[in-house]
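A.,

Following up on our hallway conversation. Structure tokens first:
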């Protein structure tokens, strides 16, 4: 979910979809399916690392292409967005439908979940209506067996009239059968196929027959075999405007203005009106017919022992999604993850820091040996390298622990339960429950959380999610929060249970951020972004045993190292600027000191001081360097320094006037201040304008300043 090269790298930029064939005779196969059916697993195991990503033209929905081959053919596999239907009520449905109709795929593979086949057959029937070149891959057969569900694959193939294969996609070898059927279809050995027909009520069939000849003539004239004429006739009767736009582009003509088509449509609509069927009733009857036929097929091929079917899942859901236990379990799991992150990251972080600063000493010796100017040595080693060393040593260990743990919850099927639990609070704020998922992505990186807001269909609700995502602390802010909690509230000595208390306090800080997300979302939805919350379908997938090995590899290489690399890119120039400010004097005082003195009066109103506020400003490219800047400024040094222990850091801060109030206000400001540069650039790209980027900067900043002011004034009155 969310934070991957696919979601935040160059592939997140809107580009035209271009099918890249490894050879001119390669076949194009589209991979369709409902969400959570293992479609991505099928795609990844078939294509391996032969993948590249982009966005569908004009849409903020990511596409992926990959290559695979057999002894006979090579294939370009195009991953269509997961969708429950092709009725085109969302961007994902529209993209899936348009690619099946006009994308030029030679084959369409529809992946289904064996544990809930009946619901998946709805998409299968809709796809077969559009084209004949369909292969059905019934995935998760192992889970179906474990839940006492038996599926008659041969009977299903006979009823559907298209190839059907069973598979366990996580076991790559089980996909050999799918590749074999793909080859058979490419060989045109299935010319005798007779795909199942959806039988609509008599009056709808009669209306479609009236339009059919004119539609067939248009398709044949343009040399198009897709979409199927009957399906298109029904869509024309429905008045599907988005499909008409795509069809007109594909055929180069306004099909509804063709005399034969317009005349037939008018006659068919008069027939339907005479039977009391208006356009809305027509849509309802078409949907209900497809659903009913899917149910009939499901009953014919699926046998299950209801005793024990999803029994354990239901018991777990009673605990994880109930009003009484759902929220406590959520908070407890978050606390456990944070405790493991805090406990596990300390020693590796220390070792990494020692190693990187040993390299720094060697670099200093090298620069001295080659006779480099002192200013160049300072800029490159004490400026750029030292900042990078701080960022890497502080960021890498906790990310290497946090991301895999979080991904394990996702892989096990728990995160959709989090979205389910938080749906009602978001609805009360007139926001979308899907915002819970983008909020979870923000724990790793707020930029990824912003990209994750693409899953929200409503533009209004998507904006609310973007503007409030920064209230959830990213991985870069954790070290500052942990250090301050340890120094001022736990004690710097390794007392028994200190890490547990630190994790609980950090959890409380995060819960405060979530509460502020609700509050600000509610204010925005009643002021700048008024509106009614939209409904959405949220499927609770079955609990699955996480693939621990794959999760660790994917988290480290596809998430941790990617985010780290991006932080390094923005931290390097920041190190140069910080070194310049600390080493250029004006009147015998560094520019850094001048700036902190200038900011000091305003910062005091917030319970901070000029150095703290300046550190946050200079930490704009990367939150990880905020504390090192404070240390450097307090010690009046021209370069970032590393103190040997939190005890020394605590002493330094106290000597410079810090109290528990300063620590609390600094934590609050760290939790609620402007997003980092990477996040703001992502918001600018996603919203396409500066107005909402400025709003994303000001909303958390003003909220954080106001909260710090209230806390500092209250402490002053009580003190």
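Then the amino acids I'd put at each of the 719 positions:
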């Amino acid at each position: 979910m969310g934070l991957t090269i696919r979601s935040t790298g160059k592939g997140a930029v809107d580009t035209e979809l271009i099918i890249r064939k490894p050879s001119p005779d390669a076949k194009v196969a589209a991979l369709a399916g409902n969400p959570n059916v293992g479609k991505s697993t099928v795609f990844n195991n078939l294509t391996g690392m032969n993948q590249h990503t982009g966005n569908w033209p004009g849409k903020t929905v990511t596409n992926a292409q990959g290559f695979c081959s057999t002894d006979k053919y090579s294939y370009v596999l195009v991953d269509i967005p997961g969708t429950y239907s092709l009725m085109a009520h969302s961007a994902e449905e529209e993209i899936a439908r348009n690619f099946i109709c006009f994308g030029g795929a030679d084959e369409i593979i529809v992946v289904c979940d064996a544990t809930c086949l009946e619901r998946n057959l709805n998409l299968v029937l809709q796809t077969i209506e559009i084209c004949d070149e369909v292969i059905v891959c019934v995935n998760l057969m192992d889970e179906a067996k474990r839940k006492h569900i038996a599926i008659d694959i041969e009977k299903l193939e006979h009823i559907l009239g298209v190839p059907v294969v069973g598979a366990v996609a996580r076991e790559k070898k089980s996909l050999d059968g799918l590749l074999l059927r793909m080859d058979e279809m490419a060989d045109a050995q299935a010319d005798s196929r007779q795909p199942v027909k959806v039988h609509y009520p008599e009056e709808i069939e009669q209306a479609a027959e009236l339009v059919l000849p004119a539609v067939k003539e248009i398709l044949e004239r343009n040399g198009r075999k897709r979409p199927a004429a009957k399906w298109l006739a029904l869509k024309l009767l429905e008045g599907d405007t988005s499909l008409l736009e795509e069809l007109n582009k594909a055929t180069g003509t306004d099909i509804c203005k063709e005399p034969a088509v317009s005349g037939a449509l008018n006659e068919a609509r008069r027939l339907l009106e005479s039977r009391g069927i208006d356009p809305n009733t027509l849509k309802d009857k078409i949907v209900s017919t497809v659903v009913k036929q899917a149910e009939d097929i499901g009953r014919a091929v699926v046998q299950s022992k209801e005793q024990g079917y999803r029994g354990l899942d239901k018991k777990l859901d009673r605990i994880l999604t109930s009003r009484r236990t759902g929220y406590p379990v959520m908070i407890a799991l978050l606390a456990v993850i944070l405790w493991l992150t805090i406990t596990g990251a300390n020693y590796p972080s220390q070792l990494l820091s020692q190693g990187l600063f040993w390299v720094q000493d060697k670099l200093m010796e090298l620069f001295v040996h080659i006779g480099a100017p002192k200013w160049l040595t300072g800029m490159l080693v004490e400026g750029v390298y030292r900042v990078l060393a701080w960022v890497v040593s502080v960021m890498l260990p906790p990310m290497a622990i946090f991301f895999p743990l979080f991904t394990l919850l996702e892989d096990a099927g728990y995160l959709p339960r989090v979205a389910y639990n938080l749906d009602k609070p978001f609805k009360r704020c007139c926001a979308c429950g899907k915002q819970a998922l983008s909020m979870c992505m923000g724990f790793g990186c707020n930029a990824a959380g912003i990209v994750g807001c693409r899953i929200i269909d409503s533009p209004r609700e998507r904006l609310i999610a973007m503007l409030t995502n920064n209230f959830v602390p990213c991985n870069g802010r954790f070290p500052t929060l942990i250090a301050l909690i340890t120094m001022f509230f736990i004690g710097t000595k390794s007392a028994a249970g200190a890490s547990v208390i630190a994790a609980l306090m950090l959890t409380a800080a995060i819960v405060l951020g979530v509460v502020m997300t609700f509050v600000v979302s509610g204010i925005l939805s009643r002021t700048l972004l008024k509106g009614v919350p939209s409904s959405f379908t949220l499927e609770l997938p079955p609990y699955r045993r996480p693939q621990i090995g794959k999760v660790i590899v994917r988290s480290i290489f596809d998430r941790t190292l990617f985010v780290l690399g991006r932080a390094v890119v923005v931290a390097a120039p920041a190190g140069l600027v910080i070194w310049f400010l600390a080493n250029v004097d004006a009147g015998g005082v560094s520019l850094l000191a001048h700036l902190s003195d200038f900011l000091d009066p305003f910062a005091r109103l917030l319970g901070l001081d000029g150095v703290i506020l300046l550190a946050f400003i200079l930490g704009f490219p990367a939150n990880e360097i905020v504390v090192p800047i404070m240390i450097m400024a307090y010690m009046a040094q021209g370069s970032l320094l590393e103190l040997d222990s939190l005890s020394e850091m605590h002493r330094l801060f106290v000597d410079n006037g810090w109290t528990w109030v300063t620590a609390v206000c600094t934590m609050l400001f760290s939790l609620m201040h402007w997003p980092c540069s990477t996040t703001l650039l992502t918001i600018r790209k996603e919203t396409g304008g500066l107005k909402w980027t400025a709003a994303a900067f000001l909303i958390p900043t003003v909220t954080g300043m106001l909260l710090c002011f209230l806390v500092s004034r209250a402490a002053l009155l009580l003190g």
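The chain has a mean pLDDT of 83. Curious whether your intuition agrees with the design.

B.
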